[in-house]
Every structure is written in structure tokens, then in C-alpha cells.
Amino acid sequence: MAPPSRRVLIVEDELEVVDSIKEYFQLHGVEVFTAQSGERGLELLASHEPDVVLLDLKLGSGMSGLEFLRRARAAKSPAQIVVVTAVDDQNVSDMARGLGAADYVTKPLVVADLDRVVLSRLKS
Predict the structure, then answer these.
(1) Where are the domains of the chain?
(2) Integer distance in angstroms from the first to the last C-alpha of the chain?
(3) What is the pLDDT along the chain (124 residues), one digit of tens a residue?
């Protein structure tokens, strides 16, 4: 019997960040989908049903990360959404958690962050 699929969606507009995170997860056998906008992220969330979403709050244009979070939860997505952002603000963190974020991590990310907030969630 094949192992269960492990899927991560990265919603991030900085391609360098996307590439490094994507490479890390692929080395761990995780299927990775990426979106540079909240709108595209919601499409991939619905079509690929990831286990975990890494979500930047400050997306370049269009929908904000908080709006993505609101819409994902309104659509009843079971994905665990982890906010990954440069915004180091307790009020914003509380707001994101109130909207259903599973965790809130500030950039820059390190490998230990990815292990703690994503890979550990994929094992359960």
C-alpha cells in the first residue's frame, strides 16, 4: 500500500522564498504547489486539497493573506494554515489565529521552523 500523499501549498509572492521552501519539502517527499496570489492560492486549495498551507500575509497585489485565510475558512478547508510573514506584530498574529491560522511564524525562516510548523503536521 502506498504511503498517504503529503501536500503543501505555498502562497507567497517572493520567488526566492518559494524556491527554497519548495526545494526543502521536495527533498522530504512532499508534493508542493505554489501560488503567487491569494486568488490562485484559493483555486489550488480547492483543487489539490493540501494538508498544510504556508501563507504570506503581504502578497504583492490583489487579495491579502488575511483575506485568503477568511475565504479558506469560509470554504471549510480542513488544511492547516501556517502564516509565514515578516510582520512581527502580536495584534496581527492574534487576528490571524482568530481567523483560523494554525501557527504564525516570522521571516526569515530557518530549517527548524519548517520542521516544527510543517513536517511535524504532516506526520500526524
Answers:
(1) 7-111
(2) 18
(3) 334 579 999 999 999 889 989 998 888 889 999 999 999 999 999 999 999 999 999 988 789 999 999 999 999 999 999 999 998 999 999 999 999 999 999 988 777 778 777 777 776 5
Burial of 83 per CB tally in 10 Å (0-12, 13-18, 19+)? buried
Q: Are the CB atoms for 123 and 115 separated by under 8 Å?
A: no
Coil, helix or strand at residue 79: coil
Q: Which residues contact residue 8 at a Cβ distance below 8 angstroms, ignoring those fewer than 6 apart?
A: 25, 30, 31, 32, 33, 50, 51, 52, 53, 54, 118, 122
Element of type H or E holding 20: helix 15-27
pTM over 0.85: yes
CATH superfamily of 7-111: Response regulator (3.40.50.2300)
> What is the residue whose three cell numbers read 483560523?
100
Residue with cell 505554489: 34
**16-20 own/partner pairs: CB under 8 Å, 24+ apart:** 17/56, 17/107, 17/109
